[in-house]
Amino acid sequence: MSKNKRSPSNQTMTRARTAQSTSDRLLEIDGLSVEYQLPDRTIKALRDVSMSLEEGETLGIAGESGSGKSTLALAILQYLGDNGNVSGGSISFKDTSLLDASDEDLRSIRGNEIAHVPQNPQTSLNPSITVGEQIAEVIRLHQGKSSTEAKEDAIGILRQVNISDPEENYERYPHELSGGMQQRVLIAMALSCNPELLILDEPTTGLDVTTQSKILSLINELKDEFNTSIVLITHDLGVLAETSDRVAILYAGELVEKGTTSDIFSNSANPYTRGLLAATPDIETERELKPIPGNIPNLDRVPDGCIFADRCEFVEDECRTGQIDLEAVDDGSGHVTRCRRWEHVVDEPLKTSESEGTTSGPVDEAYDSDRKLLEAKNLTKTFGETGLLDQVFGGEQPVQAVNGVDIDVCESETVGIVGESGCGKSTLGRLMVQLLDQDEGTIEFRGEDISSTSDAFDEFRKDTSIVFQNPDSSLNPQKRVYTILERPLDLLADGAEQDKDERIAKLLMQVGLGPEYATKYPGELSGGEKQRVGIARAFASNPKFVVLDEPVASLDASVQANILDLLQELKAEYNTSYLLISHDLSVVNHICDRVAVMYLGEIVETGPKSDVFNPPYHPYTQALLSSIPSMDPEDDRERIHLEGDVPSARNPPSGCSFHSRCPKKIGEQCEQSKPELEGTNAGGQDNRHRVSCHLDEEQMNEPVRET
Amino acid sequence: MLQNRNARIGLGLLGPMIAIVIVAPVLPLPDPTATDAANAFASPSAEHWFGTDHHGRDLFARTLLGGRVSLLFGLGSTAIGLLLGVPIGLASGYFGGNVDEGLMRFMDLFLAFPSLLLALLILAVFGGSMQYAILAVGLVFTPRIARIVRGSTLSERNETYIEAAKARGESHTHILVHELLPNVKSPIIVEASIRIGFGILIGTSLSFLGLGAQPPNPDWGYMIAESRDYLYNSPWFMLWPGLFLSITVLGFNMLGDGLRDILNVEIEEQ
User: Fold this and answer.
1) Which one of B169, B182, B183 has the shortest CB-CB distance to A461?
2) Alpha carbon distance A85, A75 (integer Å)
């Protein structure tokens, strides 16, 4: 599959050309403003945004939700929808003004020259057409090729985006592919007509770190091999550091800072960018997270002065009046910032480069085998047990979600569970609070088997609680916050006679919300506020043990840091133990004392965080850690890419379940015998650091050899 | 609510109808059963605003009073349908598995009978009493309401707020009544308003067949039945009860459509 760039002179379309054409400037956005018209108000989603993209360059656009980054992508494509319109500025692609182009011209530009990969692969592919056919259709439509030619091309592109067995996968339907494969198919579809500009909207959101790392290296490959220009939109700064040449930061519809990636990551001159950097957990530097206070403002009324002023730590009176212009920080690199006080800002040391020496969580002290709060032994859970009918008619194999897991949690300890999606970590969390009944195994709470007496179970229920991943669905939309917090008090709290109103007001204060929130419905709250209510509900009954199921996964970075801080505070105050379930190793590293790494329902490595992460022993842990995007753009360490996807838990591989993807597989031994979870020599006393792998320790510590 | 066109029209049609049905018994109307053979088939006049029927009875009084049985029939049968269908649908959707199978197959039994036929059957067995007919139609409505409630419950029961309730040890009853029911109320309200319209039609049909309201008491269905033979001589006779019946049923249906739009929007906004 060759990739021929068409030069502008080959274009047959009629276009309005500007007088002087800038040679290698592909996309030029100048003073762009976009408004959304709602029945009762107008949302000024973008205001005076200017940026440009050179050929072969990757431009990263970052910001919290509501910052207008997706609107910008849609504006470039002229896909704003009925209620959105461009109220000012211009967008030119090569020498064509996209705002003035006719519908026919636009149709030909989209797909042929500008391709868009939308955010959600599940809903962007047609579920009833094979993925190959969907790609071939684009080729036929845009390039007028015959069916056989289009099929050949489509298979070539699938190979190009590193899909194994492209001929076979051509015939598959979207639901038969994993999330990472679907995302590749979408990228393949976008590439099918050799676009000069590729717009990727949150290409790795919702994917596991291992898959994310593969998609990111694919993006970098595209740039290196085919000189494709890319606009990459994301909320994840690590993704930008990995891929972008230049970065633009949006906040509340305004461009607040723009510059080369190293300008932004190591020399940011904008308080908001610095806030984002300080709020994002980074596994390499153990620094304190610094949340950005407050929320993104409503965009129907834009205040005078700096829009970030209310949340800014550098704010002075001069920030509140007049229009704030972009000021050049460094003329040479084009580094600009929208801040009047940037000279003061750059004098402050940047949080990422500073190692404060204080780690956030207590490291090892919390573990004390005499103070075990909860101990689960041999927990096993299988879903979809085959009944008689299934056996007769050949129903599906049951899924072994959790397979013989031993785990213990001590008083005031935070234990983290990490693993890719489908590894059974959420099921384990639900077993640990008995939302699900285990098929096998026991749970001891304070040394007593909770299933032995009903008193023991009641005590367990009273002292345990759970915080869920998605705050939108974990609060009943029909109930006021007061009612939501009242039930656990009625049911579980000691001394129910105490003044409930007082207790609810106190709970709300503790989670950083005012007592006035008691009368609100969940629909009136932001995502972060909802999660705070969810946390308040979990703490209403003074629990001793709380399962945190991806508590920050659906929140923006600045909010994420707030919630993590809050969880730390509450832990100190209530003397609670946590079981933190997360796919995000940086989050786990940030607040956990001990870590367990799960793969296909089993724990493959466990131990104190410092032993597990530094250096990692199990090849899977190594791969997970190496997949995390680094916040340091200069970092070019080798990534370990795992082969394929997580195998199906219906039919797990024999022997070591990781052998099918293991980069350090030693041979038949791995396929045939299952390794035991054994203590390492380096782990020292009482076998706390345990790994299940046939390799010996020296082999585990070796770097992965190149294949 | 009044911003929705359908709901506005529905309420505009229903408001006067319901007011008439409630107020009619205390209005100074002529005696609806007093016959006046000499004055049969009279056209509308100052004395008889809607004209008279084949016995010379005043059609204005008979039409205004004739809606009570029909409306009662619609409301009563729907109330019975909700009383039985909502708990069945909630339990079926929430517990799933064998409970769901058992309840739904039992409901299918009722679904197999056309509603009018079952009502006729019950009236034939228990005698021409209105209570039994209302009960019969209520039973026929039950599976339809149960299915709608079950469907909404199925999508709600996997929301994590239900898990949160289980995690703090709530009873099933509490979860069903306090957590689930408020979240499935919109489809219930919409379905109920459409069911009432159906119920009125069935009640009127029974009277039309002579099985509902008994003569000489006025009733729309019975009046339409009587007027059939005189359609050419006196169109007024059929026009008034037919018009009132149509307006009432149309009103409930439009209200139902309007409510669906309004409640859907509310759900989306949440």
Assistant:
1) B169
2) 8
